[in-house]
Amino acid sequence: MASANTSWSEENFSCPICLDVFSSPVSTPCGHNFCRTCINKFWDEQVQCKCPICNMFFDTRPDPQVNILVSEMADQFRTTVRVKEQPCFEPAEVLCDVCTGTQLKAVKSCLMCFTSYCQTHLEPHQRVAGLKKHRLVEPMDRLEDRMCKKHDRLLELFCQTEQECVCQFCTETDHKSHPVVPLKEEYEVKSALLGKIEAEVQQMIQERKLKIKEIKETVEFSKKDADGVIADGGQVFTALMRRVEKCRDDFNQTVKERLKTTEKRAEDLIKELEQEIEDLTNRSSEVKPLPHTEDHLHFLQTFRSLKDPPPPRDWTTVEVRPPSYVGTLRRSLDQLEETLNMEMKKLCDAELRRVQQYEVDVTLDPDTASPWVILSEDGKQVHDGGVEKILFGNPKRFTHYWYRCVLTRQSFSSGRFYFEVQVKDNTEWGLGVARESIDRKGWKGWTPETGYWTLDYNQDVLVFRDNPDVDLPLRAELQKVGVFVDYDEGLVSFYDVEARVHIYSATGCTFTEPLYPIFNLSSRQKANSAPLIISPVNQTD
């Protein structure tokens, strides 16, 4: 069969009903051609069958047959002509809803038909009188979403009260008293807001990127810190193992030397005894025959020639005592303990330097101060005034006689923090941290259960307040105390800053609310006027 004439237009092969290229074209008795589906659907809606073009009525519904010639020409036209004319579309372009196969670019959208048309399929709206009344607009995608479901009208306005798009009829009914603006106006407002939101989102993204960087840097720092701690610990344990081995070797050598000395004394005594036995045996040999001789002259001459016996030695007082090892092991362990204390001091010094890196700047809060105490103007010192001041009621203030306390302005709900307090010359004090909800008016005792983690000093007695209290050794007069808290790990540690030693650590603590550094002064020592002073950290001490 000859190829289709490419000069023919699409109208030569289009169904008069759907306006698209024929699909299974059939011929009516009057000679007109339609798509089988289109003509059957058309007749389904008619009382009496007729031709849509010439209006010829048929007494009975025809059974149209496929027009083979038209079908072949339409297929060839579709594959040889329209494929060549296929245009390139931008992703945002609206396509014709009527085109089958390759969709052409829509030039208009009908708000009555909810359909977008290419130039060819738009022709009936420009020719048919009834279709000319339809409202045509620039091509729009998803037309059904742009129409008011209630009034079947274009959503052209925006209700600021309900924050939704409405049609013109909506403003006369459900949204009659609501302020409405054109979509474009609201679009500009929302676009500006969107720009602000986008800026905020970008800022949040940057903040999170910085947080990721911070976390990664923390992990990297933690690795380096862990390597340093492992190295320090390795040196300590290596030194201890060497010291243990030396102490063991010295102990073994001492025991062996003492045993050797005992064995040498025993050998010397045995030799001396054996020599005396030999001498006595020889004398006995000389003397033994004499009692049997009857020659008086020979007896006397022989007796006279006998040597004098060796001077007698009282061997009853001579003994070999086993060596005594009492105190030997203890002295070795004392040396080991001395080495351990030296290494512990080095370790504590390194530990203190680490926690000092978490120094925080805290100041005392006058709103919490007991009426018995006096604060310095800079909020860094507190001492017992000895006289109760009359102050206005404040729910944050400590008012019980025994609570001569003050908290800091700053609280901590996460992370780590460290501060130092000078306690020199103060004969009774308490230091540590307390949770926010502690009872500041009554007396319930100071324990972790009641919300206090404190170190208390009273006339050379040092304790950590708990139930029961933990008595602590006091090596020398405390001058400055360091307090370190790891909120997340549940740790509270105290240090003797001047001696560079660890005092005590409360571990396994549970913190569920903000913690405040707390300072307590004497309630019994009238002469206790020395202040507690918040001191800056000096890591070169």
Mind sketching the topology for me?
Layout: E1 25-27, E2 33-35, H1 36-44, E3 65-66, H2 68-80, E4 108-110, E5 115-117, H3 123-127, H4 129-132, E6 136-137, E7 157-159, E8 164-166, E9 180-182, H5 183-287, H6 296-305, H7 328-356, E10 373-375, E11 381-384, E12 405-407, E13 416-422, E14 428-435, E15 452-458, E16 461-464, E17 470-472, E18 480-486, E19 491-496, E20 501-506, E21 515-521, E22 532-535
Antiparallel strand pairs: 1-2, 1-3, 4-5, 4-6, 7-8, 7-9, 10-11, 11-22, 12-21, 13-18, 13-22, 14-15, 14-21, 15-16, 16-17, 18-19, 19-20
- Low-confidence runs: 1-7, 82-91
The SSE order reads EEHEHEEHHEEEEHHHEEEEEEEEEEEEE
CATH superfamily label of the domain at 373-535: SPRY domain
The first-to-last residue Cα distance is 107 Å
Task: Using the alpha-carbon principal axes, give the shape.
Answer: elongated
- What is CATH's topology name of the domain at 373-535? Jelly Rolls
Q: How many distinct helices?
A: 7
Instruction: Please summarize the sheet with the most strands.
Output: 7 strands, antiparallel
List keywords for this structure.
541 residues, alpha+beta, Herpes Virus-1, Jelly Rolls, seven-stranded antiparallel β-sheet, six-stranded antiparallel β-sheet, 7 helices, 32% helix, elongated, disordered N terminus
